[in-house]
Amino acid sequence: MRRSLSVAGGLILAVVLSQFPEYAQQYQQRLGGAVDELHVITADFDNAATGAGLTRDEALARYAHAPDAFIAGRGTNMAATFARYAQLSAALARMRGADPWQRLRLLPAYFDGDIAERTLDDFKPALPVTEEGLLYAGAGFLLGYLATSVLFLLAVLPFRRRGPKRWKVTV
Asked: Relative to the CA of 65, which of 13, 40, 162, 165 has its CA 20 to 30 Å away?
């Protein structure tokens, strides 16, 4: 029974982990799309600032010192957009340069909750036929098998039968 449960646990984790490369690929595509759009916005602002004889920082300073709260707020929003562009660009570069194991290990370094959520909403599972997918499936099976075995052994430990009691006769 333990072996059957362990194989089932291994198969379940193999299927789950084998989907990580496909999810990571779909996430990377969305991340790349977000970076491309933010680049367009950033370049447009920089071109407008340059056309007015200003640097980006000087243009943002003008927004910040505007007497109109709406204009000042737009400046704050643009500064946040530039920061997000820098953050997502760096994350995309790290993700593109990572090998399969680094991509999983460094996930928190390039993880963006909004993009991850939208990726998960549209995620389509895929059959893992790439080397990376098969590696994750194999690792998932091994980890699932071992984890299920250990959990099973720990669960039945209190109910294990001990050998027959032997009476010791002392004279």
From this structure: 40
- The answer on pLDDT for 167 being more than 70 is no
Q: What is the pTM of this model?
A: 0.70
- Listed residue (33, 30, 35) closest to 116, CA to CA: 30
Q: What is the pLDDT of residues 126-138, one digit of tens each?
A: 777 778 888 888 8
Tokens representing residue 37 in the block: 């759009």
CA nearest neighbour of 134 among 18, 11, 23, 19: 18
Contact 86, 35 (CB under 8 A): no
Close Cβ partners of 50 (under 8 Å, ≥ 6 residues apart): none
